[in-house]
Amino acid sequence: MSRSSRTATFATTKTMSRKKQGNAYYRGWEQFENPEAFDRVRADEFPARETLPGIDRRSLLKLAGGAAALATLGSGCRFQPQRKIVPFVHAPDSYVPGKDKYFASAATLDGYATGILVRSYEGRPVKIEGNPHHPSSLGACNHRTMAETAVMYDPERLQAPSLQGSFGTWGQFFTEALAGGKLALLTGNVSSPALHGQIQAFLQRFPGSRWFQYDAANRDSAREGAVLAFGRTVETIYDFERADVVLGLDADLFIEGPGTVAYGRAIVGRRDPEGEMNRLYAVESAPTTFGATADHRYPAKPSEVLSTAKAIAAALGVPGSVGAKGPDSVPVMEIVADLKAAGSRAVVVPGEFASAAVHACCHAINHALGAVGTTVRYTEPVLADWQNNSNQLRQLASMLEAGEVQSVLIFGGNPVYAAPGDVKFAEALAKAPFSAHLTLADNETSAVCRWALPASHFLEAWGDGKGHDGSLAVVQPLIEPMYDSKSEIEVLETLLEGSRSGERIVAQGWGLSPKGWKEMLARGVSAPKGAPSPNVSPIPNLLAGLPDGGSGTEVRFLPDPNVHDGRYSNVAWLQELPKPVTNLTWDNSIQVSPATAKKLGAGQQTKIMGVIPFYGAHDIVRLTVGESSVEGPIFVNPGMADDTVVVHMGYGRTRGGAFGTVGNPETHGGGFDVMKLRGTDSPWLASGTLIKAKGSYPLANTQFHNTLDVHPEDSGRDIIREVTLAAYREHPDALAHPSGEEGGAHHEDPHLPKLLYNNEKEFFDPTTNYQWAMTVDLNLCTGCNACVTACQAENNIPTVQKEQVMNGREMHWIRVDRYYRANGEEFDEANPRITFQPVACQQCDAAPCEPVCPVAATVHSHEGLNQMVYNRCVGTRYCSNNCPYKVRRFNFLHFTKRFEDVSVLHLMQNPDVSVRGRGVMEKCTYCVHRINHARIEAKKEEREIRDGEVVTACQQACPTGAIVFGDMRRESNAVAKTRASRRNYMLLEETNSRPRTTYLGKVRNPNPALEA
Amino acid sequence: MPQTFKPAANTIATVSLFAGAAVPFIAFLTGSTMTNSPYNTKQFVPIDQPAPFSHKHHAYELGIDCRFCHATVEEGAVAGVPATEVCMTCHSQIWTNSPNLEAVRKSCETGTSLQWNKVNHVPDFVYFNHSIHVNRGISCNNCHGAVNKMELTWKGQSFKMSWCLQCHEDPSKYLFETEAVKSGTISPREQVFDLYRKLSSGKKLTEVEYQLAEGLPQVVPSDDVHAGVAAMKERGINVTQLKDCYVCHH
Lengths: 1012, 250
Known about the structure:
The complex is a heterodimer of chains A (1012) and B (250). With 1012 residues, chain A is α/β, with parallel strands linked by helices. Chain A contains 33 helices and 42 strands.
């Protein structure tokens, strides 16, 4: 099969306007620019089929005949092996085999803990969910936390202590460690009182020893910003529930930083158009999920973000800021007017990785607004002994160089990889006669150290930690350590020559009675205590002392939204999870705006190979910062500020495991390393130059996979529906019936076909059966992707790796589509409006997939579910071809082979869901196993399933509660209420497939003064 | 020129014609008979065990409640096989030197689990839940055969999908309700275990109970079954979704 290829480099496109009426939504600007090519992609359900080997009719018949004969012999003449039942010798109390149990614990990232509930089967943790009692979680979870089970079951974890690559023992290590002098301890940021206590004891026990803290994705900006503004460190906690106006300055509020899950719920929870909606502004250099949610979004270079902050401060009369002028692209005066009108109920939030000056400005602005005490409060720092991480690492490196430190213990992290370029940490570390790295898996740092020690995962060890608001949570193990590993507090305990168990150490710190301790373990988090609030006010003339922003091409270094600072590099779930907004998988990229790409003469080819959609060949560009430079594929990201580059950390690993290490770009990905471009003085921002280099690099982007049949000219399809709040108040039916007719599109249209089968009475008799339904509120969806990982963990969904993603074969049952809105005739490539839409199987009442299955492998249930029977499926893929929503996933290859071959991965699978093999179609089941569990429990108690008793995995994970699920028969049920909303609409309603999943249209609340 | 075909050719031709039709048919019949026979399904085939445990002795002759060993049958998907310590509850006192119990004593001493040979195996990709069946009053013997008569345990039913569906398509044929349940003295769940109490104490059995205790194919209709159907209606038990694929396969 020859691959015909059409190319069009859209970065050099002259015009971006087309003759059209009204608004239209595009999966990407490639679609706007090259609709004919897009039509071809759309026409084929499995575009990658052309990569399959060609076969003629005769060979096919021969093979089919042979297969039939072998299948007869193979299945007919086989006996099942004798299986064994292996009961306990002494059974644990109240143990019910096969029944799940939940335990409260906490997951810690960069020092901050998020409360979790872990579901465990027969003593093995399988799924992580949020802890409703924990203020940082409120029952939800983000994608990184949920992927921690995959970290624990990583087959490449370190299993025994290793001394310079050969086998060692813990005993040997402790003897050596105690013999060494001039000790230093390098940990990540610490909020755990138990660990901090152990460290303090360690420092006392070994006088002259030092403690350093370093996390690559640290909060130095927040710390230095507070020091600039107040002369001391404080923890800034936001109360978004009380905020009427929120301005984010380069703030990726829903993905980065402590408390993202809770903040997401608080911000988006105020966006109910029936009540009072808040108004969100975003000024940011790269599009984030917060920017997409915001009512107004303005692209601005990092230096312009700073000048915006200064200008707002000036307009609010903050001393020392006279004459500060914001960039032309940001309507500062209108924003200020809105902030002023909201007064104390407004808040300005700096991004976690914005500069310290932006943080300082925001403190001053919030003070000037009177927001402190209402929407912002300050407490003592959550992190114990909060230090500037970059300085700490630099200091440790120089002490190592000078020989002032002879023995280093590194707890977790990967400082050799993650050190900024001006800290030669690897060389310094190599000079230490004794070095040890306590780590989950072998990495760049453990390769340099004398000892590599297996660390216990937090699901295997005792501990504690504080959340974003300082609430203390306990970390309790779900399983005994699987390998010969120890936790940080256990290693310190042995060094202190103590013999307390991990639980004893933690429990002693909490000082509870045995009964109180048990209750605490059940709850997971202590009752919130009023943390001391220091009385701080901005130092006078603060703004005059702030530096100006950078110039030229400004480079932002950000932790990757999925693999973070590289700690999740080896988690295939996160590598394959489409990154928010860009939908890129398996790689990082050099992201620039369309205009900057044009100027550079580089871009990405909207290439069609055969009919493979936009198999992206991205030009390689060279990014130089100071002395260092790196080459990587360009990614043109509409909505970015011009002359700005965003690169993500966490890629380009040399010892990152099977999935994390850089490999063949055609099949593996792995990206490029930007850590060394960073400097300790400004780890998140730099000035650099960008030039086009030679060659191109394929990036696996899922954006154009599984497209709904969106035709630009067909405005009646209305995949995405959104209106402004004013318009919604005027025409409340504008979302449900956009064309203005009453009563819906299909109900009154006599020309539309009736249901495909005629047993409606039996199926829809509401007196007998539950009728499951789901609604997705587009107003609440932030596009954070938590649902995708939740579904992957819950339903044993395999990953397929980069090559297969490029072939369009990723297996996610739920996907989050990104749409750009073209405003009338213009596609605003500099700042398109972004909307997200999660799409899973719509469980159509008149499912188009069902009548086309030749073997009845997909049939309807009495409760309205579209059932997929794996054992019947013969893999014709007719169903998927006929699905208008493109939600069915086919196992082209034996994607679950890894689950079968690697024994530790057996433990990770959810026993309630079948693991699918090759040649089988699969799709969202509405978490039917959870429905069945609830039904059985309800039947045993002779009652109906209560509303809210069945929670699907995606619904459970969603931080903002955008997904509502339940029995739609009862009007009092949550899902019946959302379905009755005036914003409720069906996707592709005109196909008369009558989906059970419906969407609530989006309502934005723009500032009338800014609405052009 | 000699004849090409000898007279015997006629016979050969006739036989071939019939054989051509009969051989595939017989092959198919043989195949399906074998597949469905206990030779393949292992139905009625007693399985050797590390310790020759007799359900007949324990459940029927001694009258030990099923739940003493299968402790989670009412609450979990799995009935549960007793831990060694459960066996040793009695056998540390009685039959302490019996050679039949050698494996059990060894397990207790060494702390290694017994390895029983699985008798009843639900086919792959089927999610079966004991607790709901017991709570609905489905007798152990309905699926496991006349357990009370088993010296060594065998598989009482074929566990083929068609066999499951007999009940899932119309459970009223298999549900029954004894006088005790009708009068409200015991729950339908307790009725399951009441059968063995009645058996051990030699009380009179109803027709359905007799069929279950003897492992006979259930004869419908009978009075008890009618009572079960009525009770099902009365309690508003909804069975239309019971034959949905997703009930057992997900």
